[in-house]
Amino acid sequence: MDKIYLYLASGQVFEGTAFGARKQVVGQLVFNTAMGGDMTLLTDECYEGQIVVDTFPAFGNFGVNSDVEGKDSYVKAVLVREVCDKPSNFRSVGCVSKLMEERGIVGMAGLDTRHLTKIIRDNGSVNALITSSPSLDDEQKALLEGYDPTTSIKGRGVSKAGQIIGKGDKMCLIDMGETYDIAHSLTAKGMSVEIMSADATAEQILEAKPVGVVWSSGSDRVSDYDQVVQTVATVGKSLPMLGIGLGHKLMALSCGAKLDNMKYGHHGSNQPTKKLDTGRLFVTYQNHNTDLDLSDAKGVKATFVNVNDGSVEGLEYDCYKAISTEFLPSFNGGPITTDFIYDQFINLTKENR
After folding, report:
1. Who's near 317: CB < 8 A, 6+ residues apart?
2. Which residue stretches of the chain have pLDDT < 50?
């Protein structure tokens, strides 16, 4: 197998073997703590611009299946201990190496991923470059040092805008990151969902006459959505709202909250979250690098926090008839125990009629 090299901006160099696409890439190095969900990793827009270390020692065991969050891929590269090219799961229709090659995602195997994870935990997320060159020239060094993980994202989940799915009272899903599971969860609870693009105006949303509005998850680059914050504030005067992931942050920002960069973020389907009013713990799916600072926010109350670091992961709003969560309430192939969040939101829409 072809040798390739991983260079970190902090100075470390690692050698491994290539799979997937063969090309040079630069991105932000993060780690994913999930024990499965490989297809989700390969299709979640929140990984846009990132090189992901998979902490579980084997990658691709379940092969290519339907556990996807969007039709496209966004992650730049996946770093693993071992890759499986002969999956045996009954749902598998192919191996991840082939899919990654087709979609331009670089793979690197043979790494001590636990050691890489410790580096990120100690130093925070760092820039990384993968190349076949055993040493870097000046141009590659400049590329590694100058990479900006906050640059504009590739897509905003608009491919299905205008589509209405399901039957029942209509929700508008403002799609900022192709999260299929949100729409499917709402239709499973008897709602119809009209998918609208991230640049939909407040007037367009209100003209659709929904009983409520859901602001979806998406890439963590909140600055790309300054106008959406204003739209949230306008729509919230008239309709109940639910925010998830990116949507959670945009709703909080509209009430005066601020964002802090986290040292290495939360990435994976096993993030421990505590519900503050009951003390009950939940395992949740999350994918983000920023945390909310509520010190200047008005009309919001924390409802969930992360058990590991105390970061805010859920809010109730006095300024709106609304709730929001950092985590995905239910997840295809992953945690579903916080599915009651959708029920709470549906109840809010009933109270508003």
Report:
1. 236, 251, 255, 299, 300, 301, 323, 324
2. 154-159
Question: Which of the listed CATH numbers 3.50.30.20, 3.40.50.970, 2.60.200.40, 3.90.550.10 matches domain 3-146?
Answer: 3.50.30.20
Assign domain 164-351 one CATH number from 3.40.50.880, 3.50.50.60, 3.40.50.700, 2.60.40.10. Answer: 3.40.50.880
- CATH 3.40.50.880 domain span(s) along the chain: 164-351
d(CA 77, CA 42): 9
HSE-CB at 84 with a 13 A cutoff on CA atoms is: 17
**Residues of 319-352 as b/e, b for ≥16 C-beta within 10 angstroms?**
bbbbbbbbbbbbbbbbbbebeebbeebbebbeee
Query: Which part of the chain is CATH 3.50.30.20?
Result: 3-146
Residues 189-228: tens digit of each pLDDT: 999 999 998 889 999 999 999 999 999 988 877 777 888 9
Question: Could you give the CA distance from residue 69 to residue 62 in angstroms, rounded to a whole number?
Answer: 16
In whole angstroms, what separates CA 136 from the centre of its chain?
Answer: 31
Where would I find the H helices in the chain?
38-43, 96-103, 113-123, 138-146, 180-188, 202-207, 226-235, 246-253, 340-351
Query: What are 104-117's pLDDT values in tens digits?
Result: 999 999 999 999 99
**Which among 242, 239, 231, 161 is positioned nearest to 196, based on CA atoms?**
161
Query: Looking at the DSSP assignment, which residues form a beta bridge with residue 291?
Result: 260
CA distances from 56 to 13, 150, 158, 199 (A): 21, 27, 32, 37
